[in-house]
Amino acid sequence: MFRHLYTNNRAHNRRTGRTTGAAAIAAVLAAGLTTALPATAHAAGKAEAAEVLIPAPDRFDDGPETVLATGSQGVLHREGLSYLWTNTYNRRTKAVPELDGVAEDMLVHGHDEANRVIYTRPREDGGTDVVRIGVEDPSFTSTVKVPAGYLNLRISGGWVLATVERGDGTYELRVARGGAAADDPVVQLPAGATVGAEPVLLSSWSNQLVIGYRLADGSPGYGILTAYNGRVVPLPVTGEASSFHITQTTVSWFSRGGDGGPGVRVRQRESTAAPRVVPIATASPDSDVTSYVVGDNVLWYEGLTGPLYLTPFAGADTARMLLASVSGTFLR
Predict the structure, then answer these.
(1) Which domain holds residue 269?
(2) 273-322: per-residue pLDDT in tens?
(3) For labelling alongside 296, which of 144, 162, 166, 224 has CA 20 to 30 A away?
(4) Could you tell me if residue 209 is inside a domain?
(5) How many domains is the chain partitioned into structurally?
(6) pTM value?
């Protein structure tokens, strides 16, 4: 698995003799990076070493670029009017003709582990098609036909979460599977919990989705939804929380409340134990924090852009700044 991190290092954004693809601003961090990370940056002055430059062929336009989505083996980006895919294993860029004519606002932005590019297409019957294109492997190409009446679709990891109005002003969550609506799992929230019209889908791994809802007392609640059967396992989150991420091994989130104070909570995905709290020293008491667990480390930054820090919670690594500035991420 790869994790794609986008930085705003302007020194590398300047064009050279060859057109630099969207991955020219990408650092590709392998999972379990406990050995790779120390070699990339021991100080701010060496932050540039963490970037992997992937040149695109000259035949593509030398114009403004937009990074749209990532997969485990590549990056979807747009240069001029062309949708392009740059892979991470041999740095080659190719066009994605299946996206010809697809408006950019129809694309699903984010990360897909199966290297699928996903977009939505409204149907005349009021339903929506969710088209999944297997860029690296065409066998992953498929279409999920979402019935009419399914509202405010949220898509992650290829799964489609939607709300359906019950008729009394309240809503239920459903996982759209692409068949008959009666066969779609209804999400089984904890007793007394409710959802509004807008689904809250925070992260996904395989068939596990991290979702948000409101508890009976009105406070926020969070849980792990198993997509194929609708079951929800609540997470032990205290108060407001953010930056939820689920991976093959862990689930994590950032919060300032609860025991341990401000920090990233890390728990094994299948565990029921209390999460480990990894304290982080934020510059502001109310800033937004984005965090990820990579191996035995937490990578994090504050606000929309800022330095990327590494804080270890096990092993022999040392806390430090990895990159001087980060502008956005598509990490899992």
Answers:
(1) 238-292
(2) 999 999 999 999 989 999 999 999 999 999 988 899 999 998 788 999 99
(3) 224
(4) yes
(5) 3
(6) 0.81
